[in-house]
Write a structure and sequence with these properties.
Helices cover 39% and strands 13% of the residues. With 494 residues, it is an alpha/beta fold. It has 2 domains: 350 residues, Alpha-Beta Complex (Amidase signature (AS) enzymes); 79 residues, no CATH class. It has an 11-stranded mixed beta sheet with strand order 1-3-2-4-6-5-11-12-9-7-8, with helices on both faces. Helix 2 crosses helix 5 and helix 10 crosses helix 12. The longest helix has 24 residues. It is globular. The chain starts with 6 loop residues before the first helix and ends in a 12-residue tail after the last helix. The structure holds glutamine. The site of glutamine (GLN) has 13 residues, from loops.
Length: 494
């Protein structure tokens, strides 16, 4: 099945001219046609543009020798609908941007296009990337292609990059872009049995990505294995003068790093990630991961990240504060939707009341509250101080170890309806992913096994700043040991 190929394998076959990009793209488009009505992984499908890009790639293959060409050439991807794409509607899964057609291309998508990638369409997400379930999309929920054994219950794909994860898992794309502010690449990757990398803050440009919380947002790859993520990351990463927080560092060969030896590496196991009430199966997968790394010659070291317990509380002050400021720009004047009113103020109010969904309104309220005079010191400033302590925990741990191993999420994919009445329950999903975001350090999520219901469980590796290479190296070893070849119930060709 063409839709089951990894990016690495597809690139090799394209080079040998065993397949064409048009065939590959067509196979993904057929899968989308078949499955998207149910899974709702894409908000917008760009079939004509994709086929034209595929033809352009095929022309390049016929003109140039393979060695000069990027491994992304002719590879069909899903693009999270948070990346602005020139001339193609970009909604952030919000009514307020329902008809927004950007006049510019985000740096990340521009880099991928420059390498010849094919864009199948714009993937669904939680509105403005706020959520852990993809239930917060104005364009409807995304269904996880995985099913509990003998049970057809609608499971969530995780979020906010749920459309990206579902598309990759179900064979509706070979890879996808995601963004991660507090876990949005890693948690949906875990729920859908795929691999994802949240790079170091500053590694990938944020220019042209609809902003959620600017000091946390990072773009990254989501794909079927570590090597595919490495290939995509090499294309996405790099300095961008248009993003003042992007870092001027050369981009290493992530793909080569996948074959590095990891013998003698020190892997830390943070005590604070053993949270109360964690399912025994997740504990067991974690232990399994530890054993794989021991067998590969790593030294396992117990470490402590004492401020972990404040991670979520701090995140849910900092992220909404930044969001409330970032989302002030949607006022009915400059972007997107406008609902007229008798006065300017009434127009603002109506536009924002009708344009934003419930969770987004909740975040704006929390954010303006913690930033308001009288509360600023008590909440926002204090949260910034705690954030510094969280970051320091990681710096200290990385003096003793090269990397940390933890579970990715505290549960497997849950059903629509569960965790829904209490927003705090939903926020708990991010308990293991948020600290790395607060610290700005890179992290990789990969599938490590199945639970008793047949759903994927993920492990997370957290690395030193800008050491995505080691994540690729250790991730590759774990992936081989895990031998995760399970596929979801709903997928192309089934
Ligand atoms: N679930 C988290 C939130 O709702 C993280 C989302 C993200 O990383 N974009 O904020």
């Amino acid at each position: 099945m063409l839709t089951e190929l990894t990016i690495g394998e597809a690139a090799a076959r394209l080079r040998r001219k065993a397949i064409s990009s048009r065939e590959l793209t067509q196979a993904c488009l057929s899968a989308i046609e078949h499955l998207n009505g149910r899974l709702n992984a894409y908000i917008t499908v760009c079939a004509d543009e994709a086929l034209a890009q595929a033809d352009a790639a095929d022309r390049k293959f016929s003109q140039q020798s393979g060695d000069e060409l990027s491994p992304m050439l002719g590879i069909p991807l899903a693009i999270k609908d948070l990346f602005c794409t020139k001339g193609i509607r970009t909604t952030a899964a919000s009514r307020i941007l329902e008809n927004f057609i950007p006049p510019y291309e985000s740096t990340i998508t521009e880099k991928l296009l420059a390498d010849g990638a094919v864009f199948l369409g714009k993937a669904n997400l939680d509105e403005f990337a706020m959520g852990s379930s993809n239930l917060n999309s104005a364009f409807g929920a995304v269904e996880n292609p995985w099913k509990r054994k003998g049970d057809d219950t609608f499971l969530v794909p995780g979020g906010s990059s749920g459309g990206s994860a579902a598309a990759v898992a179900a064979g509706m794309a070979l890879g996808a872009t995601g963004t991660d502010t507090g876990g949005s690449i890693r948690q949906p990757s875990a729920y859908c049995g795929i691999t994802g990398i949240k790079p170091t803050y500053g590694r990938c440009s944020r220019w042209g990505i609809v902003a959620y919380a600017s000091s946390l947002d990072q773009a990254g790859p989501m794909a079927r294995n570590v090597e595919d993520c490495a290939i995509m990351l090499a294309s996405m990463a790099g300095f961008d003068p248009k993003d003042s927080t992007s870092v001027e560092k050369s981009v290493p060969d992530y793909r080569a790093a996948c074959n590095r030896s990891i013998k003698g590496m020190k892997i830390g196991i943070p005590a604070e990630y053993r949270v109360q009430g964690m399912p025994a199966e997740i504990e067991a997968v974690w232990q399994q991961g530890i054993n794989w790394l021991k067998e590969a010659g790593c030294e396992i070291v117990d470490v402590s990240l004492p401020h972990t317990q404040y991670g979520l509380a701090t995140y849910y002050i900092v992220a909404p504060a930044e969001a409330s400021s970032n989302l002030a720009r949607y006022d009915g004047v400059r972007f997107g939707k406008r609902v007229e009113g008798e006065s300017l103020e009434a127009m603002y109010e109506r536009t924002r009341a009708e344009g934003f969904g419930k969770e987004v309104r909740r975040r704006i309220l929390m954010g303006t509250y913690v930033l308001s005079a009288g509360y600023y010191e008590a909440y926002y400033l204090r949260a910034q101080k705690v954030r510094t302590l969280i970051r320091r925990d990681f710096t200290e741990a990385f003096q003793k170890v090269d990397m940390l191993l933890t579970p990715t999420a505290p549960s497997a994919a849950f059903a629509k309806g569960e965790h829904m009445n209490d927003p705090v329950q939903m926020y708990l999903n991010d308990i293991f992913t948020v600290p790395a975001s607060m610290a700005g350090v890179p992290a990789l999520a990969l599938p490590a096994g199945l639970d008793h219901q047949g759903l994927p469980l993920g492990l997370q590796l957290i690395g030193r700043p800008f050491d995505e290479e080691s994540l690729c190296a250790v991730g590759s070893v774990m992936e081989k040991a895990a031998g995760f070849t399970h596929r979801p119930a709903i997928r192309a060709g089934v």
